[in-house]
Every structure is written in C-alpha cells, then in structure tokens.
C-alpha cells in the first residue's frame, strides 16, 4: 500500500456576484426609482475531517478546488444567490498549513470538524444602494470581490494506533506482514524500510486497528541520524508501541537502551507511551539461552517480555492479546 501523507492543494473561494443597475418599471408609477440588487456572496472553501478517509491519496489526482461564484443581483432589489460552500473532505488528523509561509492554519482531529480555508468574495452593491436626495436615478453599482485563493500544505500524521519500533533488522516488517495484509519489503540488511508501512490488523470484534512498521531507529535518531527522526514524528500519535528486539543479539540490553534512549531524547512524551517489549526470532535460540535473554531484558525493562517469532508465526496470539488489553479492547 502506498501511503502518501503530504499533499499540496490550491483552493479558490467564489467571487462575489456583481451588483446591477436597474430601475423600477411599473404600471402607473411614473418615475421608477433605482432597484438594482446586490450580488450574492461567493462560496467559501472549507475542509472537513471525515472518519472514512485514511490517506491524502485523493489529492494526488485532484489538486485544484474552486467554490462557486455568487450570482449577479437582480431587478426589484433582488440579491443574487450566494455561491454554495465547497467542502473538501480530509482524513482525521490532517494538519493544514499555508504552503507559502508554513503557518499552521488548523489541525482537523475530530470527525466532522471543519476549517474554513478561503472566504468567498462579497457581492457588489446594486444601484438601489446609491439612491440619495441629490441623485434620484443613480447609475452606479459595484462589482463583486474576488474570492480568497490559497495554496495549502496538508500533512497527515499516521493515525496508526500501534507502532512497531526497534533497531534495524529486528523483524518489524516481518511482524506487520504476518499480522496484516501489508506486504512490506523484508531483507536481512538494515534500513530496508524507508517509509512507515501501515497494516490493518483485525481485532477480535471484527474492526481493524492500524499498525505501523516504523523504519529502524539507531543511536542519534532523535538528532536526525539514520531515518529515524522523520518517523519518530509519525509515531507521536500512536497509543501503544511494540518495542521489538532480536533475541539472538549479543548486545540485547544495549539494543534496548538505544531505542529507549532515543524515545526519551526525542521528547514529546514518547517515552511515556504505553509499550510492550517483545523478543523476536526466538526459534533460533536454545530454550536455555532464550530464557536467560528474556530474564535479563525483563529485569532491565521492568516489563513482561513477550516471546515471538514473526517468521515462524509463534507467540502472535499472546502478543495480540496483550495489544488489545493495552488498548482496552475486549478480546472475544
Ligand atoms: N529467523 C528469523 N528471522 C526473522 C524473523 N523475523 C524477521 N526475520 C528476518 O530478519 C531480517 C530482517 O527482517 P525485517 O522484517 O526486514 O526487519 P526490520 O526490523 O523491518 O528491518 P529495517 O526495516 O531494516 O528496520 C530478515 O531477513 C527477516 O527474514 C524471525 O522471527 N525469525
Ligand atoms: Mg523493515
């Protein structure tokens, strides 16, 4: 699945309708006064958060959005119809910036939330407005104003509820592949994963929960080393992290420390995020050696250590049960 989490769109609100010049012409009314109506307002452009959308993919194909113009004024002081507002649906969690200045215009977090991004132009005034004692038959009217036009930068932070983190090669992509329909690249070299992979894992209730396989973190990721920093940003909104480690590593405790240290260094309270610790590739170890590794890691982390093999599909049910428990989702 391709995941686009940035898009740039141009929005143009409707132009106001023009005011018009008209005079009353009625039977038995000799000198009809000015009766030109005002133009209608141009339509606004609004963004609305929609729970059914998960990506900004649609904006790859459609990037220009123009709201309808207001209509011209009519005779008999009739005001022209206003342009309808144009509503653009975006996924929940979309941040909206002015693309030129980078200024944050809003953050659409909740379904149904709306953000006006371009206001329609005012309608022009009809000549009925210009009636005065000195001028009983004004020929003057004004044009509608142009609607606002903006270039917007949309950014969607991944709304994965569960992030899988760990050093390169820990088996994060293998795990998301075995849990979901995601088919990320898997290889025995570090930094195979360059952008987060999302996968939907079915909950016991039938709904899905989005898991994200985050590119490997290395020491210094929080300062921008490796690929980690960009993607630490993406896990800011996860509710739960699975810290995955390679059970066969000879530096297991140091491995654990590196990733935890990066979470702390990144800030934004990432290190406060609930997390599970899982040892992967357990099928490669003798039971005694595995027990020793798990015990040491449990002592260091102060957490229960889950034992899994993503490749051999072992321990996955226990892992998922722990995930649902942490998320407060009933398992069956
Ligand atoms: N034996 C064994 N190998 C595994 C297991 N899980 C993953 N691997 C292997 O470990 C290597 C790395 O797996 P990936 O899933 O690409 O690791 P990753 O954590 O996504 O790595 P990066 O994307 O580089 O951060 C691959 O060769 C996998 O086949 C496992 O449970 N057992
Ligand atoms: Mg990977």
Ions and ligands: guanosine-5'-triphosphate, magnesium ion
Radius of gyration: 30 Å
Give the termini separation: 29 Å
Give the % helix.
10-25%
CATH homology group of the largest domain: P-loop containing nucleotide triphosphate hydrolases
Tell me the quaternary state: single chain
Q: What share of the residues does DSSP label as strand, in percent?
A: 15-25%
The CATH top-level class label of the largest domain: Alpha Beta
What does the main sheet amount to? 6 strands, mixed
Rough shape?
rod-shaped
Structural class: alpha/beta
Let me know the average pLDDT.
89
Order of helices and strands: EEHEEEEEEEHEEHEHEHEH
Tell me which CATH architecture of the largest domain applies here: 3-Layer(aba) Sandwich
Task: Quickly count the helices.
Answer: 6
CATH topology of the largest domain: Rossmann fold
- Going across the major beta sheet, what is the strand order? 10-11-9-12-13-14
State the domain count: 2
Number of strands: 14
Low-confidence stretches: none
Key structural traits:
Rossmann fold, Spo0b-associated Gtp-binding Protein, Chain: A, 23% strand, 5-stranded mixed sheet, binds guanosine-5'-triphosphate, binds magnesium ion, 332 residues, rod-shaped, 6 helices, alpha/beta
């Amino acid at each position: 699945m391709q995941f686009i989490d940035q898009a740039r769109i141009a929005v143009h609100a409707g132009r106001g309708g023009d005011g018009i010049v008209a005079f009353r012409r009625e039977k038995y009314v000799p000198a009809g006064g000015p009766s030109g109506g005002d133009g209608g307002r141009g339509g606004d452009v609004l963004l609305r958060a929609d729970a059914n959308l998960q990506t900004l993919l649609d904006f790859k194909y459609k990037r220009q959005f123009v709201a309808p113009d207001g209509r011209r004024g009519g005779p008999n002081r009739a005001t022209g119809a206003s342009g309808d507002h144009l509503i653009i649906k975006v996924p929940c969690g979309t941040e909206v910036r002015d693309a030129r200045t980078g200024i944050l215009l809003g953050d659409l977090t909740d379904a149904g939330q709306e953000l006006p991004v371009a206001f329609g132009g005012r309608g022009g005034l009809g000549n009925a407005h210009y009636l005065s004692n000195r001028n009983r038959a004004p020929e003057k009217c004004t044009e509608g104003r142009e609607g606002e036009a903006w270039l917007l930068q949309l950014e969607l932070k991944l709304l994965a509820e569960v992030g899988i983190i760990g050093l390169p090669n820990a088996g994060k992509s293998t795990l998301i592949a075995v849990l979901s329909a995601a088919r990320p690249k898997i290889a025995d070299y570090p930094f195979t994963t360059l952008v987060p992979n999302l996968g939907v894992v079915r909950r016991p209730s039938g709904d899905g929960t989005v898991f994200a396989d985050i590119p490997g973190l290395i020491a210094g990721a929080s300062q921008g080393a490796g690929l980690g920093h960009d993607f630490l940003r993406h896990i800011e909104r996860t509710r739960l992290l699975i810290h995955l480690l390679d059970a066969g590593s000879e530096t297991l405790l140091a491995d654990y420390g590196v990733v935890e240290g990066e979470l702390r260094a990144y800030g934004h309270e990432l290190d406060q995020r609930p997390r599970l610790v899982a040892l992967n590739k357990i099928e490669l170890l003798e039971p005694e050696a595995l027990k020793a590794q798990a015990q040491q890691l449990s002592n260091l982390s102060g957490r229960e250590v889950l034992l899994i093999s993503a490749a051999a599909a072992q321990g996955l049910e226990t892992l998922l049960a722990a995930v649902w428990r942490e998320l407060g989702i009933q398992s069956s």
